[in-house]
Write a structure and sequence with these properties.
- The chain is an alpha/beta fold.
- The chain has two domains: 330 residues, ABC transporter type 1, transmembrane domain (ABC transporter transmembrane region fold), CATH 1.20.1560; 243 residues, P-loop containing nucleotide triphosphate hydrolases (Rossmann fold).
- It contains 20 helices and twelve strands.
- The strands form three sheets. Strands 6-9-10-3-11-12 form a six-stranded mixed β-sheet, with helices on both faces. The protein has a four-stranded antiparallel β-sheet with strand order 2-1-4-5, with helices on one face. It has a two-stranded antiparallel sheet with strand order 7-8.
- The longest helix is centred in the middle third of the chain and has 53 residues.
- The two termini are 67 Å apart.
């Protein structure tokens, strides 16, 4: 892919567009780095069209000056010239197709890269807005539709236009009187083509949305296959998929019926035109007003015009779907992330300290905030814990620290500086995050751990695994550090996934650890050992633990109790037992009344 900088600059000014404007915007931006190939393709197509248009002239000369006069030598000489032109056109066609493929495939690669970069910058708000299945479809199927149209347009549509215009000029030159038939033929074909495109474009838009739906159902049914089987819902899920499949099939059939009607009409116009030309041309030849060779050439030109009109139609069949796909692509590329880097980011010293100053957060359109007026400080060298009931805002609070979400009001400071004044890369580089849903990438144990530190040695990986209480089970795996990991970590247990994710964060050696309920799949003994080793291995860092179990966080240096999005208590376990009723209720519900006494 060429000119990444050019594309990135253009993307800053890209806005979502509708209809043909969306396709023009994409082509203007992403074909620009391949302007040389596009120009070369157009020049070669002009040469190719000139050669094809010259062949009927030579054919007419053979008839008029060779066949009629009986000059065999003239026939051979002119035939040899025609053969040479055909061979040259074959070479030109190969080069043209290669250059067009470079341009179209390069533009498609640029679009995919731009979508990937833009999605990587999305916050949770934009991810929820589009949905993961839709984003995948837009970066695969939609880009493929645009690439297919560009490839066809560069090779077939351009030469079709040149051949139609050139053939029209040559036809008028060979038979001006017969050219009057084109005043009826060409407008009739234009009307059929225009109506076809106008009717099919909305259906293609609908088709792409239904492709999203199919992908969503497939994703759900594949990832949730065990749940579906466990609850005996295989038949109902099959019915859901059958309904969606029938819906997309029905839309495809409606589109097919439109073109099934349009194409025979165009072929009929072509055939009627040929009959008209032979009828009227035959009369002109019999009257001596037109040589037979010229009539033959004229007929060839008219057939070429009508043939290339059909070629153009086959390309334009792809256009509505490409336009619909371009709209969906520009929607992604034109979406500005709610969380964006500042123009002049600050570069604070990395300490790991976190401070919330009267922070409130609410999702757009929600009736009330998720978090209300939070004020507290998380210190380096301490373990801070966050606990609260389901829906109290624990994970949302944690998401404000690495700026996955922006506070609605108030200030979140990391390393003493507002997170909105720091670049995302610098902010994240000092954070070791273990998300609530433990996720591993396809690869090996080592490749997953080195997400935290690409240059980490094997010794450092084993050290991180030891702290995370994962050394024993990794050592028992075939290949150990080189043991394969399936996508999502499907070939290891939930507890093993959590410990590998913790080890991945430890490899990074950050000054701030954010551990979001990542002890939930561990047994009590492993939980205790892991907390002890973590305290030793992260002695100088700030450690923030979100947990549901009191046993996981009761030994923390400070505990923040959330209740309905507000800080209901802050202190040590003993302090909260003495003065925080919501915390006492959590302790009693988990450990019994004796533990809260």
């Amino acid at each position: 892919m060429k000119s990444t900088g050019t594309e990135r600059t253009a993307m800053e000014h890209l806005a979502p567009a509708r209809g043909w404007a969306a396709l023009r915007t994409l082509l203007r931006v992403f074909l620009r780095p391949y302007a040389g190939q596009v120009i070369a393709v157009n020049i070669l197509l002009v040469v190719q069209a000139a050669g094809v248009l010259y062949l009927p002239v030579l054919n007419a000369d053979i008839i008029n000056h060779g066949v009629i006069t009986g000059d065999i030598g003239y026939i051979w000489r002119t035939g040899a010239i025609m053969l040479g032109i055909v061979l040259a056109l074959g070479v030109v066609s190969v080069v043209t197709t290669y250059q067009a493929s470079r341009a179209s495939l390069g533009a498609a690669a640029g679009i995919r890269a731009a979508i990937f970069r833009r999605v990587q910058a999305f916050s949770g708000r934009e991810m929820n807005q589009f949905g993961i299945p839709s984003l995948i479809t837009r970066n695969t199927n939609d880009v493929e539709q645009v690439e297919l149209f560009v490839q066809s347009a560069l090779t077939q549509l351009v030469i079709a236009i040149i051949m139609c215009l050139g053939g029209l000029v040559m036809a008028v030159h060979e038979g001006p009187a017969l050219s009057l038939l084109l005043l009826v033929t060409i407008p009739a074909m234009a009307v059929v083509i225009g109506v076809t495109l106008a009717v099919s474009l909305p259906l293609f838009r609908s088709l792409q949305v239904k492709v999203d739906r199919i992908n969503q159902l497939m994703r759900e049914q594949i990832t949730g296959v065990r749940v579906i089987r466990a609850f005996g819902r295989s038949r109902s899920e099959q019915e859901r998929f059958t309904e969606a499949n029938a819906d997309i099939t029905g839309t495809g059939l409606r589109i097919a019926r439109i073109f099934a009607v349009a194409l025979p009409i165009l072929v009929g116009v072509l055939n009627l035109s040929s009959v008209g030309i032979v009828w009227f041309g035959g009369r002109l030849v019999s009257e001596g007003a037109m040589p037979i060779g010229n009539l033959t050439a004229f007929l060839i030109y008219i057939l070429q015009i009508l043939l290339y009109v059909l070629v153009a139609v086959t390309v334009l069949i792809l256009a509505p779907r490409a336009v619909a796909s371009a709209e969906r692509i520009t929607q992604v590329l034109g979406t500005v992330a709610a969380v964006a880097d500042p123009a002049a980011p600050a570069a604070p010293a990395v300490t790991g300290a976190v401070e919330f100053r009267t922070v409130t957060f609410g999702y757009p359109g929600s009736e009330r905030p998720i978090l209300n007026d939070l004020t507290f400080t998380l210190f380096p060298g301490q373990v801070s814990a966050i606990i609260g009931g389901t829906g109290s805002g624990k994970t949302t609070l944690l998401s404000l620290i690495p700026r996955f979400l922006d506070a609605t009001s108030g200030t979140v400071l990391v390393n003493g500086t507002d997170v909105r004044a720091q670049s995302a890369g610098r902010l994240w580089s000092a954070i070791g995050l273990v998300p609530q849903t433990a996720f591993l990438f396809s690869g090996t144990v080592a490749s997953n751990l080195r997400f935290g530190g690409p240059d980490a040695t094997d010794a450092e990986l084993w050290h991180a695994l030891e702290i995370a209480q994962a050394r024993d089970f990794v050592a028992s795996m075939p290949g150990q550090l080189d043991a394969p990991i399936d996508q999502g970590g499907a070939n290891v247990s939930g507890g093993q996934r959590q410990r590998l994710c913790i080890a991945r964060a430890l490899v990074r050696q950050p000054r701030l650890y954010l551990l979001d309920d990542c002890f939930s799949a561990l047994d009590a003994a492993t939980d205790a050992r892991l907390r002890g080793s973590l305290r030793e291995g992260t002695r100088d860092a700030a450690v923030v633990i979100v947990a549901q179990r009191v046993s996981t966080i009761m030994h923390a240096d400070q505990i923040i109790v959330l209740d309905a999005g507000r800080v209901a208590g802050l202190g040590t376990h003993a302090q909260l037992l003495a003065g925080c009723q919501p915390y006492r209720e959590i302790v009693m519900s988990q450990l019994g009344e004796g533990a809260a006494a």
